[in-house]
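Reading a protein record of the kind used here takes little practice once its layout is understood. The reader may check this reading against the record printed directly beneath this paragraph.
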Amino acid sequence: MKSFFTLLLVALLGLSCSKEPAITDDMLDSGKLFDPSLYKPEQYLISKAIPNPTPEQAARPVIIACHGYSATTFEWDEFRTYLAGRSDVYLSQVLLGGHGRSYADFKQATWRDWQAAITTEYEALVKAGYTNVSLLMSSTSGPLLLELIASNYFSGRTAPRNLLLVDPIIVPSAKSLSLVGVLGPVLGYIDTDQPAVEDRVYYHFRPQETLQQLETLLNIVRKDLEKGIMLPTGTLLKVYKSKQDPVADPVSAVLIYEGVKNAAGQATDVQLINSKLHVYTRLRLRSDVTMADQQNQTATFADIVNRALR
């Protein structure tokens, strides 16, 4: 979404772009590249890898990690590497519905479709007998999870132990997203300015239909936060928020802090991170990664694991 504001200004100036993007075979959008979790789900989902856990395995913490809008399971690959060799915690990397496939698949999916992948893995784990499940959400997965809580999805279900949100987007840094309902049909899609190396794991083109879905979701969650959201009994929430996030305005953390309380009425734990990155826990394929970025990533990964093991 980095170029969204610029392209809206172009549209306002009367310039036009084709409604159909020029997709090449080396882009995720092409339908020739797919997220690897679609080929080998057992390497990404604990529900597939260990569908019949022993009592010891069922008691072991499972972290469900979900990526953001237009991304793929790649967004949490570094966390999987961080956990490599550990036997005390499991990781499920969930691919959001409509993602990791073709541009056409992405274009047709609703935010409910995105969200359904989260509940599918959660329900599969609970049904299999896993009792200690935490949810780790980056960017748009954050509001997808908050909407589930606000709609009482977890009522009558095994409550998650932790809800961990990395750079959740409630208010976009580019305020022009609110104009997508008017200008989206004119633009057709947004052509990002992301590096070509990222085109294999992030959609290069963002259909205006998906941007409208994102705006709809954010509007719903902002209203939910205004009303107040209460966490399930026994569930803890922490937000890790980059201070200079170019995609998710840091006020997003403020709205979550003010709008979400645990069952005891206590406020959300918010940690502000001295970073200029969005989803600062993903460093691969980025240029100019600093030592501070690496330290932020490692410290956050350690904190996530420590919380899951409590």
